[in-house]
Automatic annotation (TrEMBL), chain A:
The keyword Transmembrane helix applies. The chain crosses the membrane at residues 12-29, 35-53, 84-106, 113-131, 163-183, 213-234, 246-275, 296-316. This is Unannotated protein. It is found in: Cell membrane. Keywords: Cell membrane, Membrane, Transmembrane, Transmembrane helix. CDD domains: TM_PBP1_LivM_like. It holds the Pfam family BPD_transp_2. GO terms for molecular function: branched-chain amino acid transmembrane transporter activity. Coiled coil: none annotated. It is a multi-pass membrane protein. One of its GO terms (cellular component) is plasma membrane.
UniProtKB/TrEMBL annotation, chain B:
One of its GO terms (cellular component) is plasma membrane. It holds the Pfam family BPD_transp_2. It is a multi-pass membrane protein. Belongs to the binding-protein-dependent transport system permease family. LivHM subfamily. InterPro entries: ABC_transp_permease, BCAA_transport_permease. It is found in: Cell membrane. GO terms for biological process: amino acid transport. Keywords: Amino-acid transport, Cell membrane, Membrane, Transmembrane, Transmembrane helix, Transport. It comes from freshwater metagenome. This is Unannotated protein. GO terms for molecular function: transmembrane transporter activity.
UniProtKB/TrEMBL annotation, chain C:
Gene3D superfamilies: P-loop containing nucleotide triphosphate hydrolases (3.40.50.300). Belongs to the ABC transporter superfamily. The lineage of its organism: unclassified sequences, metagenomes, ecological metagenomes. InterPro entries: AAA+_ATPase, ABC_transporter-like_ATP-bd, ABC_transporter-like_CS, BCAA_Transport_ATP-bd_LivF, P-loop_NTPase. Residues 3-236 form the ABC transporter domain. CDD domains: ABC_TM1139_LivF_branched. This is Unannotated protein. SMART domains: AAA (SM00382). GO terms for biological process: L-amino acid transport.
Length: 326, 302, 236
């Protein structure tokens, strides 16, 4: 397996503290915020899978929603048919999505830029509808994904949402910690080399295609994990839960976070969750019409996306870093 | 036997609309080297302009050209204001390869929410101006209605006109030269920026036509999140890529192929496999001939 | 009618590619700019045709400043630039490659007339008229690039390394054609070359660029005999 460089102890402690802080936070804020926190954690995993793919290995995917769907369905099938424990459902989701990601990645390695974007887009449009074809996938209604009540040892007041939040945050923290170690390893350097100078990397003895497929596979695994988290928070999986707009939202989140650095991933995740709320309160304050209220979130997200691409193309974190270096 | 023939007719009609969408993608790709994922959004917007005309005046025949003209204007404005800014700011670094993709996606979202703001998110409807009931042949009903015939005629006229302009006129020569080698074209005295804007405008007009025809061919419903336009986006793109992204003829052939394959899958296998078939077809073509079925890349740098 | 460049400075980002260059090219003469790799020859030419923007300095043509004018507009003022490496469009036919040089005039009759005169100069292009440009040999492509430039009836021709990658015999032919353009058609030519000897032999005036500045300038024949230029650039 992968041999990581011994990771910085302080960085590890940072993650632990972050975890403790999140536990503290979950006890102080209200139910809605806790639920949103779980969604943020889901987005963190999903967006980081895109950042890994695009920012580090230079591939584009507009179809990650489909891989989330694979993960979600995988977890739900394991849960419903074999009554598997949650952690096993999640592991199954990762493996299942990674398997499909490897297949897709093998094709993707031969495609570039707009071709890859369009192919993955077609996948995002096409894959969820497969559920209608096969009975065991539950058709339009989808499947139920119930992870069960929180363990009794946590006390009677411990709510379902808080349980979601704990699971999602722990999953996100572990995957972030693992991912940043991976990116600091030989693999991370290889991906960067392939992204910036693919021909030079090839001449230096890097197997470019293999490295791209590996990136796609890992990214898909993360996407599958995010899919399981998403299904957990909404308790079902169905084609409607993974629309094209989900794939677009993830790409948006990645760009807002800054595709070249993992560090900004929380920015994108929080933005995606916060925008509907901000739009809502904004609409109420200015007393907007019904049409305006419905469309304000979309307008804000798209506007933000365009402004980011045009003016801070490498994302806020990279922008600040560059300014410091000057 | 008769069912095969009818399926064939359905496929050709659907394919001809995808062809318009694919052509508009090819035109934008050729003039700016950008795959415009907002193309379907722009088509949707022009269709709403067409709807407005029908709403006010009541004539589809007036609405069609107006949708095309407004499509051209919208596309030209987007190229002038937006794409030039984009190429200036984000043409370098890690983002360069995905900036246009992301930016046009942003544009798509922007256009959709603006449509929602002005016209609402509920379905509005455009009535088909011609009968959607098929001609009869003896006791059998053909899958060719006056409306479908009209669609085929309009698309054929547009394709022939565009091919003529591209291959036989000086304007077409300027368009092709600017697409292949912008710098050499500028040095030869061609106003490449202007030509580029013109390419976008023509693409916008083709998209407007595709939107109006698609809506009237389907159930007539129109909404910002209309499935019909997700179809146009995905199938237009797939057709264009199958055809090689660089060739008008390729786009038309790719679209007809896609339309036919999908029609047969729909009739003989099942509706829920249509999307995934399109995806598989795209993959197969890309893996066998990465540059599309019509490829003219021989002897040229990528 | 002269090309006048004074105190021209051009930067590529932080790097100064051209530093305080002043040159003059008389109408109807053939000037050769020689110098090693990275001397700034191509940058100078690209700045003259509007592809690069100077940070400082002045360029006038016929007494009129041409700084800030776009390349496509400079063609209309009689300045035509043939960029490095056989600047033809491989996907287009020979005929189309020629015609794009005269599209801006929007005059079919004039276009046909200039096309005929170009074919008179380069009969080989006439033989290959409806072939795609990527089927041409290197020498033919260079002829096509020159021909396309002549389609716009230029008064000033900026040529960037027309001999690049061509066989010696073909180089001699191309240089002869360039000399004829000046001698018989009166076109002012500014020729940038690595092939210093060949260029100086056909040129009236020679300009040696070194690290972005003018090192030597003088009669081409005098430069060939200059011992310093000989050792540094001509190699004997």
């Amino acid at each position: 397996m992968h041999k990581f460089k011994p990771s910085n102890t302080s960085r590890f402690l940072g993650f632990v503290f972050l975890g403790i802080f999140l536990v503290y936070l979950s006890n102080t804020v209200d139910e809605l915020r806790v639920y949103q926190g779980a969604t943020v954690a889901m987005y963190v995993v999903a967006i980081s899978s895109i950042i890994l793919l695009t920012g580090y290995s230079g591939q584009v995917s507009l179809g990650h929603g489909a891989l989330l769907a694979v993960g979600g369905y995988g977890a739900a099938l394991l849960r419903n048919n074999f009554n598997a424990p949650i952690w096993l459902c999640f592991a199954g989701a990762v493996l299942m999505a990674a398997f499909w990601g490897a297949l897709l990645g093998a094709t993707a390695a031969r495609l570039s830029g707009p071709y890859l974007a369009g192919t993955t887009l077609a996948l995002a449009v096409g894959l969820p509808s497969i559920a209608n074809q096969f009975k065991f996938l539950g058709g339009e209604q989808g499947l139920i994904f119930d992870i069960g009540l929180p363990p009794a040892s946590l006390g009677e007041t411990f709510s379902q949402y808080k349980w979601f939040f704990w699971i999602a945050s722990l999953t996100a923290l572990i995957s972030m910690w693992w991912l940043q170690n991976l990116l600091r390893s030989r693999y991370g350097r290889t991906w960067r080399a392939v992204r910036t100078q693919s021909i030079a990397a090839e001449l230096a003895g890097i197997h470019v295609a293999r490295s791209k497929v590996l990136a796609f596979t890992i990214s898909a695994g993360l996407a599958g994990l995010a899919g399981a988290l998403l299904s957990m928070t909404i308790s079902t999986v169905s084609p409607g839960a993974f629309p094209l707009s989900l794939s677009f939202a993830l790409a948006t989140g990645a760009v807002i976070s800054g595709v070249t650095t993992l560090g900004g991933v929380i920015i994108g995740a929080v933005t995606l969750v916060a925008i509907p709320e901000i739009a809502d309160s904004l609409a109420r304050r200015i007393g907007a019409s019904e049409n305006a209220t419905i469309n304000l979130p979309g307008l804000l997200v798209s506007g933000l996306l365009i402004v980011t691409v045009l003016f801070i193309p490498n994302g806020p974190v990279e922008q600040i870093r560059q300014r410091k270096m000057k | 036997m008769f069912q095969i023939f009818n399926t064939f007719l359905i496929g050709v009609t659907a394919g001809s609309i995808y062809a318009l969408m694919a052509i508009s993608m090819v035109l934008v790709w050729r003039s700016t080297r950008v795959v415009n994922f907002a193309q379907a959004g722009m088509a949707l917007l022009s269709t709403y302009f067409g709807y407005e005309v029908i709403h006010q005046v009541g004539s589809y025949w007036l609405a069609l050209p107006i949708a095309m003209i407004s499509g051209a204007i919208v596309a030209a404005v987007i190229e002038l204001v937006f794409m030039r800014l984009l190429l200036k700011h984000s043409s370098q670094g890690a983002i360069a390869s995905i900036a246009p993709i992301i930016a046009t996606l942003g544009l798509l979202g922007l256009i959709k929410s603006m449509i929602g703001y002005f016209w609402g998110n509920q379905d509005v409807s455009i009535e088909s101006p011609l009968s959607n009931v098929g001609f009869t042949l003896g006791t059998q009903t053909l899958a060719l209605s006056p409306m479908k015939l009209f669609i085929l005629i309009v698309v054929s006229i547009l394709v022939i006109a565009l091919t003529f302009v591209f291959q036989r006129t000086n304007l077409g020569l300027a368009l092709r030269a600017s697409a292949y080698a912008p710098e050499i074209s500028r040095l030869a005295g061609i106003k490449v920026d202007l030509v580029r804007t013109f390419g976008w405008a023509v693409a916008g007009a083709a998209g407007g036509a595709a939107g109006m025809l698609q809506t009237a061919n389907g159930n007539g419903a129109l909404s910002p999140d209309s499935l019909e336009f997700s179809l146009l986006l995905a199938f237009g793109f797939i057709s264009a890529v199958i055809g090689g992204l660089d060739s008008l003829l390729g786009a038309v052939l790719g679209a007809l192929l896609l339309g036919l394959v999908l029609a047969f899958v729909l009739t003989y296998i099942g509706g829920s496999l249509v999307f995934i078939t399109a995806f598989v077809l795209l993959l197969v073509v890309l893996l066998i001939r990465p540059a599309g079925i019509i490829s003219q890349r021989a002897g040229r740098r990528a | 009618m002269t090309l006048n460049v004074s105190n021209l400075t051009v930067h590529h980002g932080a790097i100064c590619a051209i530093n305080q260059v002043s040159i003059q090219v008389q109408t109807g003469s053939l000037a050769a700019i020689i110098g090693s790799n990275g001397a700034g020859k191509t940058t100078l030419l690209r700045t003259l045709s509007g592809l690069n923007h100077p940070t400082h300095g002045e360029i006038t043509w016929n007494g009129q400043s041409i700084i800030g004018i776009k390349p496509e507009m400079l063609v209309r003022k009689g300045i035509s630039h043939v960029s490095e490496g056989k600047s033809v469009i491989p996907e287009l036919t020979v005929q189309e490659n020629l015609e794009i040089g005269a599209l801006w005039r929007r005059n079919k009759k004039e276009m046909n007339a200039s096309r005929n005169s170009v074919v008179d100069i380069f009969p080989r292009l006439g033989e290959r008229f409806s072939q795609r440009a990527d089927t041409l040999s290197g020498g033919e492509r260079q002829m096509l690039a020159l021909g396309r430039s002549l389609m716009s009836k230029p008064e000033l021709l900026l040529l960037d390394e027309p001999s690049l990658g061509l066989a010696p015999l073909v180089v001699a032919q191309i240089f002869q054609s360039i000399r004829d353009l000046t001698t018989s058609m009166g076109i002012t030519v500014l020729l940038v070359e690595q092939n210093a000897m060949g260029a100086l032999k056909i040129a009236d005036v020679g300009i040696v660029l070194n690290l972005g500045s003018v090192a030597v300038t003088g009669d081409a024949s005098a430069l060939i005999d200059d011992p310093q230029v000989r050792t540094a650039y001509l190699g004997y």
